[in-house]
Amino acid sequence: MARKLPDPQYIRDNYEYMYLTKDLKENTYIFNTLLAGNNDVVFRNIKIGRRKTPACLIYIDGLADKSLVAHNVLFPLMIETQKIDENPGTGDEFFERVRELFVTIGEVNVKDKIGDVMDDLLSGETVLLIDGIKKALILSTKGWEGRNISESTTESYVRGPKEAFVETLRINTSMLRRRIKHPDFVIEDMKIGKYSKTDVAIAYIKSIADDKVLQEVKKRLKKIQIDGIIDSGYIEEFIEDNPFSPFPQIAHSEKPDRIAAEILEGKVAIIVDGSPFVLTVPAVFAQFFQAGEDYYERYFLSSALRVLRIIAMITALLFPSIYIAETTFHQEMIPTQLAISIAAQREGVPFPALLEALFMEVTFEILREAGIRLPMQVGQAVSIVGGLVIGQAAVQAGLVSPAMVIVVAMTGIASFAIPAFNVAITFRLLRFIIMIAAGTLGFFGIIMVIMMVLAHMASLESFGVPYLSPITPCRSQELTDVFMRVPWWAKILRPRTIQRKNIIRQEDKRG
């Protein structure tokens, strides 16, 4: 008597815990039930060997490489298996012969749980079910279309590697493997997301990375319970130490060379399938105004550029506030000739300096956002021409003074010099708070807000590492790679704040 097929609703509710049976008809019925209505799912019924053993090949058109399926799976199974002798064995023996002799795919796995088989099928693998066998062959045939490796659009180098990560996980891991060729370099995989089941990889060097940091990363990733992960930004918000802080506590980059360099320092990288941005932890504030190119140019040039970026960072944060405070409360601090010139320019302006600055800053931010959202060919023209036209028109209309236009323009340009986009956004937000404090309390308000911000930053940690290290707590040895960069031959030790397992980077042979 034929076995009764399971109820469809029961299958949909419990398939993750069900196991394959020996009945090919029942197994294909289960997968048909789960994938009903999907026109891109291919069920290919075939016969294997001279005994014409029924089998079924299942794959998803668009995720599996059809050429690979045809030449490395279908052809050997349907043609080459005809060469099996009259007694090829039965059951597991026959299954093993098919796996070992007639499937010419590089990676073949065996699974018996329907939930696991379904996950692999929906990830682009091909599933082979054979009648009389309670197991399935999982054939690695992933081959969907993806973006080719190209130059980064967010991190531009004059000197250094040009290639950037793409949206395919295995391509990204291969770019890291090319740079770190050591057996201690480990890449662990996991899936996150109830419905998306996104592949996430953790990359680290086990002889360098701090074990506590590594275990904490795994712990936080395993706690994520969400429907789907679309980009690495989802994970960043889930695992950062202080989600209410405006400062980023996890670094990200789309440059393989930069991620590889951070892994060599003892950090842990988190790679998310579908995202070209790779996360690294722990992160400290100092690294956000360091560009990857700093390590490719000669050290004294890189040090000079870092000082320039620090000046730009201070300008982007404080320049409008200082102007507002001096013109509103502290006119005696302005040189006489300059004070007379500013007073003459502001004679017809009906608004106080604070409202004048807020108007110009908001206008500048709107233009910047419009330039990003519009098509590339139009966006640059809108942001540049719009800024010139609106600034000139506002001055002629007497709404703002020419000095304020210069202050806002210099502030905006300075913010572009900050390498990390997420930190630049944070400074843009803080700038408004400091401007309001300057317009109400003068320099006292500026100092008060700055002290509050510094106190907040000093309280932050990223996976157990103080956010302001190595500035505070001060580590003189590591300060050689903060405000300036020493030559590579002088970088003997890795940062102690990141890890303490293996701090020797190279032998000191200068003596």
UniProtKB/TrEMBL annotation:
Signal peptide: none annotated. The chain crosses the membrane at residues 307-325, 378-397, 403-425, 432-458. Coiled coil: none annotated. The keyword Lipid metabolism does not apply. Keywords: Membrane, Transmembrane, Transmembrane helix. GO terms for biological process: spore germination. GO terms for cellular component: membrane. InterPro entries: Spore_Ger (IPR004995), UPF0353/GerABKA_families (IPR050768). Belongs to the GerABKA family. PANTHER family: LEUCINE ZIPPER PROTEIN 4, SPORE GERMINATION PROTEIN. This is Spore germination protein. It comes from Caldanaerobacter subterraneus.
